[in-house]
Amino acid sequence: MVFYRQTLLEFGFFAVTRIVTIWLGKSFLKSMPLNTYRSLLRVDVKSAKNLKDTDLAGKSDPYAVISFKDREAAPKSSRTVTIKESLNPIWNTTFFFLVSDDCKHFKVELFDEDFGRDDSLGHCNVLRKDPGERTTYSGEEYYLEKGKGGTIDISTQEISITSGLDYLLGTRKAAIEKFIASKQRPPLALLEVVIHHCEGLKSGWIDKSDPYVKIQFEHEPEGAGVMPKDLKTRTIDNNPSPIFEEKFHFMIPDSLKSMRLSVWDEDPGRDDALGHCTVMLKDYMQKEDRKKYALNLKGTITVSYVRIPLPPLFFD
């Protein structure tokens, strides 16, 4: 009887502790989805004119840097090659970025490559187009602030990826197939990942898990080149078989071979691992649809993914 009473007291203490943890912990510490990149942005840096000459001997060696504020784009910055000894450089270079809804503009700054510190040749801020105009490919010449009359020619175009890319992949099928047949291999590709659900995750007999999924790449040598990094799903409370149905997009190096899906139990303190699996990535447009993978500890995760070449997604 004493043992029975003690067990009830311990159970009561645990239950109260759990309720307090849920109220204090989950309501304030519950993870929000990190997938904030809703659009794919193309930026064409074409040319510059009448740049100021900062070299005492010879002409400037200009290059351009595109940069965004923290967490507004992935990658956060990119740069052109350097054009030697030219005040009217021509780049004709295309860049791609995943951008968030918070992004209102990006900065383009020109530099003169030199030994030691590179000198600025001026900069401009390129405003993001209004939503109704973003899908149209267009641009203009921008005057460079502190550029002594220099200009730079930039064009942009955007694609919304909020609902995924199924429709776009259908409409651009011919262009994508033509691009793949040309054997071109740009340094970066787009990876779309859909986390559907998990089943049979490890869980206590009273305290069920509060799972979320992280998509990771650091196990690969090329993983450092993936942008953004470590996106995760929302947390599903008290459910060993959670349904997520969330889409994610990453810029990945063309040579990337795999991704790791790790499932975690969210807690106010340290989150506990519920298992992981490694997914080998197929080549362009070889879609893996709702494939179930076994986790190393217990349970399964169902996922879809496709690797997509970036250039043929856009209309000129």
Quick overview:
With 316 residues, this protein is mostly beta strands. It has three helices and 17 strands.
Strand content: 35-45%
Total individual domains: 2
CATH homology group of the largest domain: C2 domain
Compute the average pLDDT.
88
Low-confidence stretches: 1-33
Q: Which class do the helix and strand fractions yield?
A: mainly beta
Q: Roughly what percent helix? A: 10-25%
Output the number of helix runs.
3
* Highest-level CATH class of the largest domain: Mainly Beta
Ends apart, CA distance between termini: 81 Å
Rg on CA atoms, Å: 25 Å
Strand order of the largest sheet: 3-5-1-9-8
Summarize the helix and strand pattern as letters. HEEEEEEEEEHHEEEEEEEE
Based on the structure, what is the oligomeric state of the protein chains?
single chain
Global geometry: elongated
CATH arch. level architecture of the largest domain: Sandwich
CATH topology of the largest domain: Immunoglobulin-like
Largest sheet: 5 strands, antiparallel
Tally of extended strands?
17
Top keywords for this entry?
316 residues; 14% helix; mainly beta; Immunoglobulin-like; 17 strands; 5-stranded antiparallel beta sheet; 2 domains; 3 helices
How would you describe what is shown here?
- It is a single chain.
- By secondary structure, the chain is mostly beta strands.
- The protein has 2 domains: 37-158, Immunoglobulin-like (Sandwich); 164-313, C2 domain (Immunoglobulin-like), CATH 2.60.40.150.
- 14% of the residues lie in helices and 42% in strands.
- The protein has 3 helices and 17 strands.
- Strands 3-5-1-9-8 form a 5-stranded antiparallel beta sheet, with no helix packed on it.
- The longest helix is centred in the first third of the chain and has 28 residues, at 2-29.
- The N and C termini lie far apart (81 Å).
